[in-house]
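Human: Cast an eye over this sequence-structure pair and say how the chain folds.
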Amino acid sequence: MDDHDALRAVATVRRRAAGRQRPLDWIGLWWAVFLGGYVTLFTVVLAADDPDIQVLNAIALPPIIIAGALLEGARARSGIRRQERAGFFVAMAIAVAVVLVAIGVTMFGEPPWWWPVVTGPLIGLLMGALPAARLLRSRGERTVWGAETLSRTGAVASVALAGFLGFSAAAGAFGHPVITMVVLTIVVLVAVASLVASSSRWGLESIGASWARRQWIGFALTVLVLYGGALPVTAASAHPLVAVAYGLAVAAPLALSALPRRDR
């Protein structure tokens, strides 16, 4: 092998690595937007005196716990172990500081009306800067996702996850304190179970490792519907039928993305 062949082989390896990294960067960019939305919703809940609004914590918490484990599974599947640069840890430290300041000002001060509107997007920008920069540097490279069709275990687990998110959204929308406590208890149990059995075939990390672009888009749409409808549905003291419809709308995108595609 001459020097030209060696350089070409190195370039090929780098392109393949970039192709495996790009899905993680797209997911990381989505995670940044998602986290910014959660912080916005969280600060709105903290600032509200209405007890009906406080139930939003039960609706907003499950996706955060679940998404973190799913993302770890996607990273493990890619086989990429990247050494993050100093800028990543600086952004993380600033983001944590912003969250702590936001919580302190919201709980113990009199934040202006624009406070939640600014805090959430700032978190999203800080967390999304690095994956966005990597996507720009690797533009033109092929993005390598996994197979669109899930295994039977992955499909059943994904549909069950969609059902859980829909249930938590519908139950939280009822606004009943007993139902809210039950939902929060289930959330804690799911978090503990995901940590204990994360590497099992039914664990959240295994689910995240099996997902391709279609399932991640379905999960993103599910979270979008969940967060987008949480405040208006809860603030309006939703009728039980409205709460059930809201839960079904939350579960539908992810559940449909997990079903096998029919060949046309």
